[in-house]
Write a structure and sequence with these properties.
The protein is of the alpha+beta class. It has 7 helices and 14 strands.
């Protein structure tokens, strides 16, 4: 279950992460046609500043990556403060997952159908923000991030809290057979129905299964249940309208 907050800048939070006063997090939402909630790098600087003020983090400590559907995971330190906060050029290059154990740093990924995943380890006080498109999902980026947190911070998977944000749902993610083949390791994620001319992929289930396989308890994993393409909350969706808008999903260690 997620809760909607409307003051200042509209955003969701997850119940499993809301339990901890030691971390803040957000998933932005609202009218998909509105420019005043678009957090895409180009033209979104003022919106990001407003988001930072609403959530309560320092915009100069916001960090984003150049998301390229890679498996690259960056360990974010104080030296990275502000990289990609309000511009494109300073983003961490070719990076789709960000991890840190530094207080005050805000990690954020941007999506408009791809899967955003947040991880929090209350034992080591470390966190991750992951951009998992279908390629990243098929190649196991969330499991790799869990391993990276274990190597860097001593994270034990059983301590992790995971939140899977809004993405294109299995209801709408129609793919060709070549894409479906990439998910053959998780056959339950490949769906066929008589009314569907081609298979559909359940990206949320694929990421959930990978988290469980990495050792994260199923009870520690929460998903929004929102489809960006057909859901009711006006989330940005590239498949629906080729939008240039982006949802911001982020986490800040306090």
């Amino acid at each position: 279950m997620i809760m909607l907050h409307s003051a200042g800048f509209p955003f969701f939070t997850f119940a499993n992460l809301d339990r901890f006063s030691t971390v803040k997090h957000f998933v932005t939402c609202g009218n998909n046609a509105a420019t005043d909630i678009n957090l895409r790098s180009v033209g979104g600087a003022d919106n990001r500043r407003r988001l930072a003020q609403t959530i309560g983090f320092d915009i100069n400590r916001l960090v984003t990556g150049e998301q390229t559907h890679s498996l690259n995971i960056a360990v974010v330190t104080d030296a990275d403060d502000g990289r990609g906060s309000v511009d494109i050029d300073s983003r961490i290059p070719c990076t789709d997952a960000l991890i840190t154990n530094r207080r005050g740093i805000a990690l954020m990924v941007l999506t408009a159908d791809c899967v955003p995943v947040l991880l929090y380890d209350p034992a080591t006080h470390s966190a991750a923000a992951i951009h998992a498109g279908w390629r990243g999902t098929a190649n196991g980026i969330v499991g790799l991030t869990v391993k990276k947190m274990a190597n860097e911070f001593g994270t034990k998977p059983e301590n992790l809290m995971a939140a899977i944000g809004p993405c294109i749902g299995a209801c709408c993610f129609e793919v060709g057979g070549d894409v479906a083949e990439h998910f053959s390791r998780w056959p339950d994620t490949i769906l066929h129905r008589s009314e569907w001319p081609r298979p559909h992929i359940d990206l949320v289930l694929a990421n959930r299964l990978q988290l469980e396989q990495a050792g994260v308890p199923a009870s520690n994993i929460e998903s929004s249940g929102e489809c960006t393409k057909c859901g009711p909350n006006g989330l940005f969706s590239h498949r629906r309208n080729q939008t240039l808008g982006r949802i911001g999903t982020g986490i800040v260690l306090m």
